[in-house]
Amino acid sequence: MTNKPKMIKNYLKIAVRQLRKQKMYSVIKIGGFALSIAACLLIGLYIIDELSYDKSYPDTDRIYRLVEYYAHDGKVEKGDDYPAPISNALKADFPEIEKSARLMSNSLFYGAGSNELRRADQLENAHEEGFTYADPDLLNILTMPMVYGDRTKALAEPNTLVMSKRKADKYFPNQNPVGKVMYLNNDKTRPFKVGGVMETPPKNSDFQFDFLLTLNGVEFYKGEQTNWNASNYPDYMLIRPGTNIAQLEKKITTDINKNYLLPALLSISYKDAAKELEKLSFKLQPISKMHLYSYDIQDEFKHGDIRFIWLFGAVALFILIIACINFINLSTAKSANRAKEVGLRKVVGSTRSSLINQFLAESLLFSVLSFVAGILLTSALLPYFNMLASKTLVMPWSNPWFIPVILVSSIIVGALAGIYPAFYLSSFKPASVLKGSISTGSKNSVLRNGLVVFQFTASIILIISTFVIYNQMKYILNKDIGFDKDQVVLLQGTNTLGDNGVRNLKEELLKLSSVKSVSISDYLPIEGTKRNGNTLYNEGKSKVEAGVSSQFWIIDNDYLKTFGIKLVEGANFSVNDKSGGVIVNQTMVKQLNLKNPIGKNISHGDDKMRIIGVVKDFNFESLRQPIGALAMYYGNSPSIVSVKVSGGNMVNTVAQISALWKGISPSQPIRYTFMDERFANMYVDVQRMGRIFTSFAMLAIAIACLGLFALAAFMAEQRSREIGIRKVLGASVQSITSLLSLDFVKLVVIAIVVASPIAWWAMTKWLEDFNYRAPISWWIFALAGLVAIVIALLTVSFQSIKAAIANPIKALRSE
Predict the structure, then answer these.
(1) 273, 257 contact by CB (below 8 A)
(2) I want to staple 237 with a disulfide (CB 3.0 to 4.6 A). Which of 100, 274, 323, 588 is the partner?
(3) Which of 97-111, 513-527, 758-772 has the lowest mean pLDDT?
(4) Which of 702, 675, 668, 539 is nearest to 607 (CA)?
(5) pLDDT digit string (tens) for 334-369?
(6) What is the mean pLDDT of residues 487-498?
(7) Of 520, 771, 533, which Cα lies nearest the Cα of 631?
């Protein structure tokens, strides 16, 4: 017992000596480990952050949202929009539900989404995002901490709002704003009184709303609050403790379908209502799973994706394994150099267990040093990773778990990486060492080659994935989407000018020489603009047909011209069109089975509309989705003015538009974006994934090449006598370089063969999320393979050439 500290000290002393003796190998071992640990830590911080979403509420385990499942055409569509009266029905019919509250952020309705906002005692508006309507009980369900005001009363009165602390500090610095009045979009007919200030939502919450407008006393159209045939409201509920969720889901499905939805459908004489409702069921999704398990649910949030969590976790594991492989490869490859040490120590009485402990001590030392370097590297790379992943992660220095986890991880990783080399090196027999057979046997290891193949297989999979992602992104941004998104300036917040002001703005803009056309409409073929889903029928068929689920947009007579949308039949709207007609797309014509559609009538409720034109299909949603049915009618939707400009001096054009705006609306700063940028932002998650994969692919290749470089150096060292003899016999530098490089190229070729089908399968699954996708062409695999071979050749060629041009006399003399 008394000798243990001395033995440990001795082990560490020898380990440090080995580290100094083999500087290049030590740097490669520690450097490769440090890079992989940094990658694992960055991914780990990302995963921890993603897993923490919506878990900070006091009653998190009892908060659920209602999700509908609709089986249609062999697919299951999921959504969370329900009729307005569903919340009261749930509370009344199910004692298991303690509280129920609706949310409504659909920008179709006044006040939801984004607004121009100002205090009643000030003149200048500021643009704000993050408005939603909410029932008063939503604050109680989430137990939202309040800075000012009473949570139970903050949204109780009509026309009240609750704002976040960060917005209260902006508009009412160092004040209690409760009772103050604010205007939305310069609308003085509907003032909003501040009912309370809530704590700013934490970053790891999907509820990133800064303004909650009360639903108390709100009716967006006549009879809405009792209408079971229109769905606009997500619903959240607090479930009583001990409730059987599966049984409650069945009860909700039966009750809502039988007692509410069926009578509603029968009221419009839909004869197949009961059969249709058999396809509909309801599930309760825990709020703690909403962020990562909602990638296939159509809702109002920007979610994470549990599939990415598994994917990034696998990438981190691969990178760590690659680094461990480097350690094992280099340790076993250097076996000849350690053979005499092992043999001599066994001759003088060392046991195998003491040798194992010695080699494990060396491994642990390398691991601890690598973890220290990896943590420092993580801290340095974190700002870049945050930019890459759109996060605000920080190093968890103050968290009590961080240091213990790092220490335990360094011990576990060091032990796992060192256990095979320790047992392998300690197994040498003194007799074999003295005969020199260890040196021969160490030159060609099936295990070592297999590990190199694994390293490059993982790296090539990442390279292929990166190429596929970028190819898909290029395809999306360059695909013919049926409208022209270039040179279109979007002026936002124009509804504050009033109807006459917006029309005056359009007239003034058309006077500018660089402006080709101007359109007034909030409904644009990009995300973040208005949407209005409705069911449309052939005239007189609403009682016998299911109808077509369609978007129903308000546009003006210059909409088609401004966006280059092609009219294939019929006519466009005229100025101040009062015909009551509609323009539909080709998909609508197809789904309604219309032949010669011009002049035919379609209906929406009691409204009949005559088709006056048909436009060529264009992608008005993400390319992840197929083109849906669309009907457009003439009207006023004035929050966005789209300006098609010539492709000349854009800076000068924007300056002219800005000057014009200032003259018309001096109390409100101009706010504009470009449509092509907004379109590209629809796929920012794809771009982000591409950047992440590129970074990790480069990292994996770098770590693999570090090991390959060291192995090439070792193999050149081991074959120095053979190289010397070949040179004496007349071999050229080129032939010797080829000889030394060929073995490694063979391993990379094997890795390409193994990696290609795995990458093809993985990327095929990923592309299933897109309705429009670029094919995975053969050249992607060829290019990835070529990149891997070139990188491998560049890595080993330095050592190969160095060995080939070395003086053969030195190698032969040493033998």
Answers:
(1) no
(2) 100
(3) 97-111
(4) 539
(5) 555 666 666 666 666 667 777 777 778 777 888 888
(6) 90
(7) 533
What's the CA angle centered on 27, arms 24 and 31, to 5 degrees? 145
State the Cα–Cα distance between residues 193 and 211, nearest whole angstrom.
Answer: 12
Q: Would the pTM of this model clear 0.85, i.e. be above it?
A: no
Closest CA to 332 of 722, 718, 754: 718
116, exposed or middle or buried, with CB in 10 Å at 0-12, 13-18, 19+?
buried
Phi/psi for 357 (5° steps) reads -60, -40
Q: Where are the beta strands (DSSP E) in 539-666?
A: 548-555, 567-570, 582-585, 601-604, 607-615, 629-634, 640-645
- Alpha carbons 12 and 6: distance in angstroms, whole number: 10
More confident residue, 669 or 95: 95
Amino acid letter, 680: A
SS3 content of the chain, % helix, strand, coil (to 5): 50, 15, 30
Burial tier of 730 (Cβ tally within 10 Å: 0-12, 13-18, 19+)? exposed
Question: Which pair of structure tokens corresponds to residue 371?
Answer: 């973890």
- pLDDT average, residue stretch 594-607: 86
Q: How far is CA 163 from the centre of its chain?
A: 28
CA distance 738 to 771: 47
The Cα 306–Cα 714 span in angstroms is: 43
Mean pLDDT of the residues in the chain: 85
The DSSP H or E segment spanning 118 is strand 113-119
CA angle 99, 105, 110 (to 5 degrees): 120
Could you report the per-residue pLDDT of 223-247, keeping only the tens digit for each?
A: 888 888 878 899 999 999 999 999 9
Element (H, E) at 76: strand 75-79
Query: Among residues 340, 348, 338, which one has the least CA distance to residue 434?
Result: 340
8 Å CB contact between 463 and 471 = no
Q: What is the pLDDT of residue 624?
A: 82
Give which of 206, 178, 209 is closest to 288, Cα–Cα: 206
The alpha carbon of residue 66 and the mean position of all alpha carbons in its chain are separated, in whole angstroms, by 24
Q: Where are the beta strands (DSSP E) in 510-595?
A: 515-520, 533-538, 548-555, 567-570, 582-585
Backbone phi, then psi, for 671, in 5-degree steps?
-135, 120
User: Radius of gyration (Cα) for the chain, nearest Å?
Assistant: 34
What token pair was written down for 399?
Answer: 């968290």
Sequence-distant (6+) residues with CB within 8 A of 712 are 740, 744, 795, 796, 798, 799, 800
Cβ-in-10-Å burial (0-12, 13-18, 19+) of 390 comes to exposed
pLDDT at 182 over 80: yes
Cα separation, 743 vs 448, whole angstroms: 12
Whether 443 shows a pLDDT value over 50: the answer reads no
**608-647 b/e with 16+ CB inside 10 Å = b?**
ebebbbbbebbbbbbbeeebbbbbbbbeebbbbbbbbbee
Burial class (CB in 10 A: 0-12, 13-18, 19+), 458: buried
Residue 282 · residue 252 · CB < 8 Å = yes
Q: How many residues does the chain have?
A: 815
Token pair for residue 135?
A: 């029932």
Q: How would you class 253 by CB atoms within 10 Å of its CB: exposed for 0-12, middle for 13-18, buried for 19 or more?
A: middle
**β-sheet bridge partners, residue 621:** none
Starting at the edge strand that comes first in sequence, how are the strands of the sheet with 672-674 ordered? 515-520, 640-645, 488-492, 672-674
Give the helix/strand (H/E) hosting 148: strand 146-148
Give the pLDDT confidence of 517-529 residue by residue, as tens digits: 999 999 999 988 8
Cα(461)–Cα(763) distance, integer angstroms: 10
Q: Where are the alpha helices (DSSP H) in 63-134?
A: 86-93
Closest CA to 475 of 776, 773, 779: 773
Q: Is 112 exposed, middle or buried (0-12, 13-18, 19+ CB in 10 A)?
A: buried
